[in-house]
Amino acid sequence: MKSGNKKVLVSGASIAGPTLAFWLAKYGFDVTVIERSKSLRLGGQNLDIRGAGRSITRLMGLEDEILAANTGEIGLQFVNKNNQVEAAFPIDGANGFTSEAEILRGDLVNILYNATKKKVKYVFGIHITAIDQGDDRVTTTFNDGRIDIFDLLIAAEGVRSTTRYLLFGDEPEIKFVGLYNAWYTIPKNDTDTKWARWYTAPGSRVMVIRPDNQGTVRASFSFLSDNLSYQNLSNSEQKKVLKEKLSGAGWEENRLMKEVEKNDDVYFDGVSQVHAPRWFNGRAGMIGDAAYCPTPLTGMGTTLAIVGAYLLAGELSRHEKHKDAFAAYEERMRPFVNNVQKLPPGVPWLAHPKSKFGVKVVNTMAGILASRPARKISKLFASKDEDPTKDKIDLPDFTSQ
């Protein structure tokens, strides 16, 4: 393919899309990024960038800016219904849950946008409604009626990607893992600290409250359920479900329930993985969550988005034909995706016990893992700031080829 002023349309201005645009523009492509929202979507929860993903942000010259925008979280505490700490995992511990590169989703989106806006064209408030492919072009129709022609189209959208459906129909499998999660931003109060707090309640429910760098806190509430219909409810109906599920949970139950009612930015969805037998169709394809969402349970969604964008742009830069670039990309990327999407045995069920005894077991096990002997043993087998998946993907230096 190589650049030669080739026009590329990227749909989605979250993380994968701007990262892809960064590298494509660097290699000389003419890139347009479209976003369904009328502006950047700067909400969302904490993200962490690990291993290969962090290496790529370093290559982009953005690592220091990302680290400077960290949430200030110093680790994770498991607490009981009386807010007493059962276990603590500090950020510098071998078993730490908090990454040094812990950043709010909106802050990362803004950093990526500012790093690309001078070399990439952004168009907000539009989305693709029809795609017509030829041998040498992709004709796209947008919701405002305009039609444009591109050499390539890449969907960098979310799990519910509409562009993916236009390209592949029902072929990709959206695999629901039996867990629902709600995220929202709430006011900070006296019980909140720089620690993230995890509370496990009977009835297969978990609440997590995490600090941010904006004077508020980020709350999440998850529960196990096989009821697929919750995903299709209206916003008010979903809030009703959340309040029903929160009822009787204890700890910060009343606080979270109150905020569900008054908050206009509650994101509630079923946790799902995307398994697609194909990522490309002709001159079009998909990356990020649209193609291979691993779920937040893996902690690797952001890293997959960044790595996938870097590799796809690199393969397009060094191949004459887009088909060869797509094939080379998939050969590198799919084994990494398959590895990341393997959830540990018992996830998410073990972390969401049904009984009070199960809750006690979770807190006891957390306490054992957080104990000084366990930390010492872990340090013998783990290097600081190293991610276990880091070396499972090769990151070529495309600029030297």
Map the helices and strands.
Layout: E1 7-11, H1 16-26, E2 30-35, E3 46-48, H2 51-59, H3 63-68, E4 75-79, E5 85-90, E6 102-104, H4 105-116, E7 121-124, E8 128-133, E9 138-142, E10 147-150, E11 152-155, H5 162-168, E12 173-187, E13 195-201, E14 205-211, E15 216-224, H6 235-246, H7 253-262, E16 267-275, E17 280-281, E18 284-286, H8 289-292, H9 301-318, H10 322-340, H11 356-370, H12 372-381
Parallel strand pairs: 1-2, 1-11, 2-7, 4-13, 11-18
Antiparallel strand pairs: 3-6, 4-5, 8-9, 9-10, 12-15, 12-16, 13-14, 14-15, 17-18
Helix pairs in contact: 1-4, 1-9, 2-9, 6-7, 9-10
Protein name: FAD-binding monooxygenase
GO molecular function: FAD binding; monooxygenase activity
Keywords: Monooxygenase, Oxidoreductase
Describe the structure.
With 401 residues, the protein is of the alpha/beta class. Helices cover 33% and strands 26% of the residues. The chain has a domain at 7-70 and 104-174 and 273-344: FAD/NAD(P)-binding domain (3-Layer(bba) Sandwich). The protein has helices at 16-26, 51-59, 63-68, 105-116, 162-168, 235-246, 253-262, 289-292, 301-318, 322-340, 356-370, 372-381; strands at residues 7-11, 30-35, 46-48, 75-79, 85-90, 102-104, 121-124, 128-133, 138-142, 147-150, 152-155, 173-187, 195-201, 205-211, 216-224, 267-275, 280-281, 284-286. The chain has a seven-stranded mixed sheet, sandwiched between helices. A six-stranded mixed sheet has the order 7-2-1-11-18-17, sandwiched between helices. Residues 378-391 have low confidence and may be disordered.
